[in-house]
């Protein structure tokens, strides 16, 4: 499952833990940092992608050390399902009886042993030291015994035991790719007739996403990003891929003229603006704008066309972030998109990028798959329906609505749209894959229409869903 498999078929089954590798790098600080972030995710619902950069900065970790700390943190969080299955077979104590901090040390150790190039003796030795410092000498002995057993087989050998070929498909995929079973089932359903791609999709969820930037039209150019080391991106005319380095080090990103933004996120915003509308095309709205990714692009395009964007978010803090992403012409309001203050039919184009489970962005949020269960889908469903209905009421006849989720779950995507449209006869479904293809070269594989679905394993983007709806 993780990106860097460690295949060591010929290694002795009795590998002894040795001293931590002496490389002159602050290895202990690297592992301690990964451990601290993993604990914060477990105990106080921290987000690894937000907390880790702060911890790296506080501790002065840069370059290779920062990269290793990131890999260990993300890999351990993503791989938890698989590592727990292996650890359960190596521990004489039930995992639920192992203290939280110690269990996280074991997971971190298992990740290093099974999915990195760190020599197993170093991985075991450093994990045992960490166990000693967080749980005391007795627990360090236990950690040593467990992790030596983990190190007695390579990943493929463990997979043959914990996810055997004759297990039922959902269970096998769930353990082998470390995804909860309900997510495996939901993703297979969403793939529909392409469900044979599920292995590739789950593997893509465990791979490091490429960093994609947007040069906001009229504010930055792609050449500026290329000069800073970025390379052309496949689809969006405003996107560039940054193969390495910190995006925050790029001037245009620092001053908000460019930003980090997934290419599918750019494309769904572009699609809303690519649909021809008859008559007035001056008032655009984004009902769920925070933190401002799509609003940033929409406001730049609105300005180019002499239109104006109103960006709303119900959370004041997130509306504040939108202010930094949009240009001066745009308006930003704190507002509940389900109970709009504006009159019906006030807008010509409306984006509703609804709150969702985020199952389409598991690559970026390593802990997200473990955080919420299937009940979240039903809870969000009501809000998604209300927001879409409100968006349709907010657009004038002839105008267009884009309903977007960063989730491919059918109950958040086509089921929501179909439900809302069932009770109305004033909406036409447009062919979203065709509109997207007209806005980008070589953009295929989005489905038969009328809805469009991006996929990480096909497009290298988040699994973003788009429905384009015209009020009649
Ligand atoms: C998926 S995020 C939007 C991401 C954003 N469009 C972007 O591209 O950066 C969903 C947003 O909807 C907001 N939200 C949730 N309920 C809302 C409501 N009733 N009205 C308006 N915004 C709401 C959340 O605060 C959150 O910022």
UniProtKB/TrEMBL annotation:
EC number: 2.1.1.-
Name under which the protein is recorded: RsmB/NOP family class I SAM-dependent RNA methyltransferase
InterPro entries the record matches: MeTrfase_RsmB-F_NOP2_cat, MeTrfase_RsmB-F_NOP2_dom, NusB-like_sf, NusB_RsmB_TIM44, RCMT, SAM-dependent_MTases_sf
Residues the entry annotates as binding S-adenosyl-L-methionine: 288-294, 313, 353
UniProt keyword list: Methyltransferase, RNA-binding, S-adenosyl-L-methionine, Transferase
MF annotations from Gene Ontology: methyltransferase activity
Highest taxon in the source lineage: Bacteria
Pfam families the UniProt entry points to: Methyltr_RsmB-F (PF01189), NusB (PF01029)
Region (Disordered): 1-27
GO biological process: methylation
Enzyme class: transferase
Family to which this protein belongs: Belongs to the class I-like SAM-binding methyltransferase superfamily. RsmB/NOP family.
Catalytic residues, chain numbering: 406 (nucleophile)
Domain SAM-dependent MTase RsmB/NOP-type: 187-472
């Amino acid at each position: 499952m993780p990106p860097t498999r460690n295949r060591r078929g010929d290694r002795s089954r009795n590998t002894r833990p040795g001293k931590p590798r002496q490389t002159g790098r602050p290895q202990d600080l690297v592992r301690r940092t990964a451990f601290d972030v993993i604990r914060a995710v477990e105990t106080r619902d921290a987000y690894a992608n937000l907390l880790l950069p702060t911890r790296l900065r506080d501790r002065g970790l840069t370059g290779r050390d920062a990269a290793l700390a990131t890999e260990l943190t993300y890999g351990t969080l993503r791989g938890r399902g698989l590592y727990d299955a292996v650890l359960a077979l190596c521990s004489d104590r039930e995992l639920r009886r192992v203290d939280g901090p110690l269990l996280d040390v074991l997971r971190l150790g298992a990740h290093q042993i099974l999915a990195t190039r760190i020599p197993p003796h170093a991985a075991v030795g450093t994990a045992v030291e960490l166990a000693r410092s967080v749980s005391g000498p007795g627990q360090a002995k236990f950690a040593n015994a467990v992790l030596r057993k983990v190190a007695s087989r390579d990943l493929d050998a463990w997979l043959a035991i914990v996810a055997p070929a004759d297990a039922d498909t959902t269970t096998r995929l769930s353990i082998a790719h470390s995804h909860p079973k309900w997510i495996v089932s939901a993703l297979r359903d969403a793939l529909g007739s392409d469900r044979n791609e599920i292995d590739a999709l789950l593997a893509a969820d465990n791979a490091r996403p490429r960093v994609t930037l947007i040069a906001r039209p009229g504010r930055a150019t792609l050449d500026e990003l290329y000069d800073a080391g970025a390379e052309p991106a496949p689809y969006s005319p405003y996107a560039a891929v940054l193969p390495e380095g910190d995006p925050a080090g790029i001037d245009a990103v620092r001053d908000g003229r460019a930003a980090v933004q997934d290419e599918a996120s750019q494309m769904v915003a572009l699609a809303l603006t690519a649909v021809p509308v008859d008559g007035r095309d001056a008032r655009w709205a984004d009902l769920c704008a925070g933190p401002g990714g799509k609003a940033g692009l929409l406001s730049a395009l609105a300005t180019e066309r002499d239109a104006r964007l109103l960006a709303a978010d119900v959370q004041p803090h997130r509306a504040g972030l939108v202010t930094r992403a949009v240009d001066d012409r745009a308006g930003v309001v704190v507002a509940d998109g389900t109970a709009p203050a504006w009159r019906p039919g006030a807008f010509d184009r409306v984006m509703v990028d609804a709150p969702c489970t985020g199952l389409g962005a598991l690559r970026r949020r390593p802990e997200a798959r473990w955080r919420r269960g299937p009940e979240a889908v039903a809870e969000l469903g009501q809000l998604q329906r209300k927001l879409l209905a409100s968006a349709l009421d907010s657009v004038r006849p002839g105008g267009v609505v884009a309903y977007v989720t960063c989730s491919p779950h059918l109950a958040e995507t086509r089921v929501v749209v179909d439900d809302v449209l069932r009770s109305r006869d004033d909406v036409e479904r447009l062919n979203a894959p065709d509109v997207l293809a007209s806005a980008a070269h070589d953009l295929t594989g989005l489905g038969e229409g009328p809805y469009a679905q991006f996929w990480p394993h096909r497009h290298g983007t988040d699994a973003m869903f788009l429905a384009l709806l015209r009020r009649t």
